[in-house]
Amino acid sequence: MLSIRNLSKTYRGRQALQNLSLDILPGEVYGLLGPNGAGKTTTINLICGLLQADEGQVLVNNQVAGSATKPWIGVMPQENLLYRSLTCEENLQFFAKIYGLPRRRRSLRIQDCLAAVSLSDRAHTPVENLSGGMQRRLSLAVAIVHSPKLLILDEPTTGLDIEARHEVWNLIRLLSREQGMTILLTTHLLDEAERLCQRIGIIKQGQLLTEGTLPDLRQRIPACEIMTVETKEPEAAIARAQELGFTPRRYGSELAFWVPDELELRDLLARFDGVPLDAISRSPVKLEHIYLEVTQGTIQTEEAIEVE
Ligand SMILES: Nc1ncnc2c1ncn2[C@@H]1O[C@H](COP(=O)(O)OP(=O)(O)OP(=O)(O)O)[C@@H](O)[C@H]1O
């Protein structure tokens, strides 16, 4: 559905994308992750034809991205682009008209979209009187009003409370499962990507560092579990862990270890006997750990392995 080939983009001498290639299959939810400034929004703007690439190509549904592919793409941008004094229905009318939806189909489609995002009862409410979560849902309705083949969601739930976040997640799942929509999603919320995306790509400095399904990515870390400890004597904990064959790691301010086998907490504690631990917890390898390893360059990505 989307094929990005060797895409490069420079802004006044600053390289934003370097030879980026990736493919998104029909019906797939693909998560594009990366730190601030990695090139995610630039990629989206190139897909939508809002920017011109220096090199490379974007194909949408096998056609070079341009005016012909625009009607196939729906975008929910990071900031809601809604008319605050207009009602939900008026906003949808406006965007449906811009997308060239025939007048006779507009009304029904708008009612369907309002129902899809659970805003039918707010059809006549001005945007400025909606909660942040409702505005986000309306943004999603605007993005799908013309029934796009490819839906791009740029940080869809940033700034929402947990309840509103769940509502948007449910909508995304529905669009994917029931309407088979192909979705490209960017987010800094790794649990969001973990919940929604079938495949994940991690970019940094405009380059794709790695991509795959979550189980594929988990294989990058040769650990069964991640153990996090709080201790006043980190050096002693690290020395003991190394004796045990556990790989020490710093995840932000946390001291963690890669534990290669599944161990009972009792066994783990016994192995650290004599080391003063204030707290200890275990978790399976999460996307957060893989992301930190990949973006900090502490584990090899496919490209690095190929070069060797
Ligand atoms: N209009 C512009 N003019 C100059 N530089 C720009 C422009 N837009 C983006 N950049 C630069 O290009 C790089 C990629 O930016 P981009 O906005 O694509 O990153 P991002 O991954 O979307 O970041 P974020 O997660 O913060 O939204 C950054 O170094 C940024 O400063």
UniProtKB/TrEMBL annotation:
Keyword entries, A-Z: ATP-binding, Nucleotide-binding, Transport
SUPFAM superfamilies reported in the protein's UniProt record: P-loop containing nucleoside triphosphate hydrolases
Record has Metal-binding as a keyword: no
Top-level taxon of origin: Bacteria
CDD domains: ABC_subfamily_A
Gene Ontology MF: a single term: ATP binding
Alphabetized PROSITE patterns for the sequence: ABC_TRANSPORTER_1, ABC_TRANSPORTER_2
InterPro entries given in the database record: AAA+_ATPase, ABC_transporter-like_ATP-bd, ABC_transporter-like_CS, ABC_transporter_ATP-binding, P-loop_NTPase
SMART domains: AAA
All residue ranges annotated as the ABC transporter domain in the record: 2-230
Family: Belongs to the ABC transporter superfamily.
Name of the protein in its database record: ABC transporter ATP-binding protein
